[in-house]
Amino acid sequence: xxxxxxxxxxxxxxxxxxxxxxxxxxxxxxxxxxxxxxxxxxxxxxxxxxxxxxxxxxxxxxxxxxxxxxxxxxxxxxxxxxxxxxxxxxxxxxxxxxxxxxxxxxxxxxxxxxxxxxxxxxxxxxxxxxxxxxxxxxxxxxxxxxxxxxx
Length: 151
Known about the structure:
Elements: H1 3-40, H2 45-59, H3 63-104, H4 109-125
Helix pairs in contact: 2-3
């Protein structure tokens, strides 16, 4: 087998491994994005039914026990959701009130404007109506990002 043939086989194998690596990486990104999307919806009625069904099957609950379990699961998921939202609101408030003013101290005017634009994008992506402070996304509580950082 000639050197040229060995080189072309090596290039082909390298290309195949590279394509495999890229496809594997993309698959991981898709899985993470799918997991994150599902994690945002864990407080829905579908999630409540899933957990209730899972526990009912696992524990072999009677219909009466299942009926008693359902409101407990619903209450627990709702409480966890509220706690999560409160945590997000506190961290958002901390960022906006404490860290943005410190960053603004050493930025020039053009940089401050770019930072404000980015914050506006962040708020829009989070579903926050900038004028009312309410969520634009049905069923999604608003983040507390309704105050402009002081310069």
